[in-house]
Specification:
CATH class of the largest domain: Alpha Beta
Number of helices: 7
Structural class: alpha/beta
Radius of gyration: 20 Å
Order of helices and strands: EHEHEHEHEHEEEEEHEEEEEH
Number of strands: 15
Largest sheet: 5 strands, parallel
Strand order of the largest sheet: 2-1-3-4-5
Number of domains: 2
CATH architecture of the largest domain: 3-Layer(aba) Sandwich
Distance between the termini: 43 Å
Oligomer: single chain
Strand content: 25-35%
CATH superfamily of the largest domain: Response regulator
CATH topology of the largest domain: Rossmann fold
């Protein structure tokens, strides 16, 4: 498992390296002293895991995540309780308060999941004002285009992400996510009901009640997929 340490404090990076030496399954692929450096390193290194400081000059850890297209798993590291609380709300793997206790590090690493397919998105970082989430792709039931942005539907939330629907589609599993129309992609596993319209198309009702009307052309494709 490849890890990247992102922290502006040299001593903090050295200490985390020392602690990770006790975990031979973790390969430290590199270190970044801030968000901008991490942005250039992540596409090259393709780390499985980020150890990410939150409070850094120039770019916070949250701002870094917002700019990543392929989001690794994240363990936040911070010296401040208020950031730890926010990190917990973001649903990261874990957060570690500095100075990091070896037992807490071991517990955080135990939550790391193996990555399945690097060509597919596994999670995205979504921000809406002061609120932010790390959302697992299977939890998203609908993606809706709004210009160069995409509205992401999960749970009761529907924030915008700074990526186009076409760009997201390229990284989604086509066996799970279906392009229902010019503006919508639906998660097939969230379909609750399928109705035939007067015009011969389909209206999809997703779990939770959200409906999506489809053209006859896309309806025909979906019928083949669902064997209707």
């Amino acid at each position: 498992m490849k890890a990247l340490i992102v922290d502006d404090e040299r001593l903090a990076r050295l200490e985390l390296r020392r602690l990770l030496a006790e975990h031979p399954d973790v390969e430290i692929a590199g270190e970044a002293r801030g968000g901008e450096e991490a942005l250039s390193m992540i596409p090259q290194l393709a780390p499985d895991l980020l150890f990410l400081d939150i409070q850094m000059p120039g770019m916070t850890g949250f701002e870094l995540l917002e700019r990543l297209e392929d989001l690794p798993q994240v363990i936040f590291t911070t010296a401040y309780d208020e950031y730890a609380i926010q990190a917990f709300e973001v649903s990261a793997l874990d957060y570690l308060l500095k100075p990091i206790a070896p037992a807490r590090l071991a517990a955080a690493l135990a939550r790391v999941r193996p990555r399945s397919d690097r060509g597919r998105l596994e999670q995205v970082f979504v921000r809406d004002g002061e609120r932010c989430w790390i959302v697992r792709i299977p939890d998203i039931f609908l993606l809706e285009s709004e210009g160069n942005y995409t509205r992401v539907y999960f749970g009761t939330e529907r924030p915008l992400i700074r990526r186009s629907l076409n760009a997201l589609q390229e990284q989604l599993d086509p066996a799970v996510f279906f392009r229902a129309g010019r503006k919508e992609i639906i998660n097939l596993k969230w379909i609750d009901k399928v109705d035939i319209t007067v015009a011969g198309g389909l209206t999809i009702t997703l779990r939770g009640g959200r409906t999506v009307e489809m053209s006859r052309r896309q309806s025909a494709r979906l019928r083949e997929i669902l064997s209707l």
